[in-house]
Write a structure and sequence with these properties.
Elements (H helix, E strand, L loop, with lengths): L8 H11 L3 E7 L9 E10 L3 E6 L10 E5 L6 E8 L4 E6 L23 E7 L6 E7 L2 H6 L1 H8 L6 E4 L11 E3 L5 E8 L7 E5 H12 L7 H38 L1 H32 L1
Antiparallel strand pairs: 1-2, 1-4, 2-3, 3-6, 4-5, 5-6, 7-8, 7-10, 9-12, 10-11, 11-12
């Protein structure tokens, strides 16, 4: 915490307030843990519409792996969230919610250029299951990056990923949280931590984060609005199809009743006549048979 001591409470409060509206807590559940999250993380808001909120994160939440996600903004109730696209490093999520005080973080306003070594950085995110945000401080360390680069290679395999090491403690919940400068500029996003120490953590740097965003969102402007529009269109179309099937099934369920009602009187009369004829025939045969049997 030595890096924080040179800043007063007013500065830290202002920095937190400038970034906090773009932060959302993400709770991830799986089949074995349906009530208590199996892990927590932080998401960065990129787009806000009247009905949806677009979020990116680096936590593991792919529905193909059996994960389900809910979003938590402050003291509000859990909001329905759907993972709509994933890449090797990032996931794009759409949160269904309105009247949420969220402000998008514009990727084009991310820090440009090299990151200064030993510069003070801040990690802002949601630390635990409690719906509160925290801010931890640390420094960028290229020297430490050199000492743990083998771990990074093992972590990412053959994939070439540009990261930097920082010393901000990131316990459970701060994965996916942005790393910011003292001016509120985004330097990168947490993607990994080591078991060596709480203060040895990896973040995608700003340039790599933009590259990954362009791949994930499939556009060079880092715009998430088009993805949300597509999601909304697909949801609307699916809803109309469900309603259409519902109307069709209700008509099918009513149609046999109509046919039964329309043919009931005549069919009953015909069945009545046939049954009376059938009931009289055995009586005649029985009568005829009884006389012959007596004759014998």
């Amino acid at each position: 915490m030595s890096a924080v001591r040179s800043y007063d409470d007013a500065f830290l409060r202002q920095l937190h307030q400038s970034v906090a509206p773009s932060i959302v807590q993400l709770a991830v559940f799986n089949a074995k843990s349906t009530q208590i999250p199996c892990h927590l993380g932080t998401g960065l808001v990129l787009c806000v519409t009247p009905n949806y909120i677009g979020v990116i994160t680096s936590i593991s939440c792919d529905p193909k792996d059996g994960f389900r996600v809910v979003a938590r903004f402050g003291d509000q109730e859990d909001l329905e969230t759907e993972v709509v696209r994933t890449s090797s490093l990032l996931s794009a999520l759409v949160v269904r919610g309105c009247n949420v005080q969220a402000i998008p973080c514009i990727p084009t306003s991310f820090h440009e250029g090299d990151l200064p070594e030993a510069d003070v950085v801040f990690c802002i995110g949601c630390f635990s299951i409690v719906k509160e945000q925290i801010m931890t401080a640390g420094i960028i360390s290229y020297l430490m990056h050199a000492s743990v680069c083998e771990f990074e290679k093992e972590l990412r395999g053959e994939q070439q990923v540009s990261t930097f090491v920082h010393t901000c403690p990131i316990g459970d919940g701060l994965m996916g949280a942005p790393i910011c400068s003292r001016f509120g500029k985004v330097f990168g996003m947490n993607v990994a931590r080591t078991a060596l120490c709480l203060s040895i953590n990896f973040a995608l740097n700003n340039s790599q984060l933009k590259v990954e965003l362009a791949k994930l969102l499939q556009n060079e402007d880092y715009e998430m609005s088009a993805l949300i529009e597509k999601y909304d269109s697909e949801k609307t179309s699916a809803s109309k199809k469900r309603k259409g099937r519902g109307v069709s099934s209700s008509q099918m369920s009513r149609s046999p009743v109509k046919r039964k009602a329309g043919g009931s009187s005549s069919s009953r009369r015909e069945r009545g006549v046939a049954s009376s004829q059938m009931s009289s025939l055995p009586a005649k045969r029985k009568a005829g048979g009884s006389s012959s049997s007596r004759a014998i």
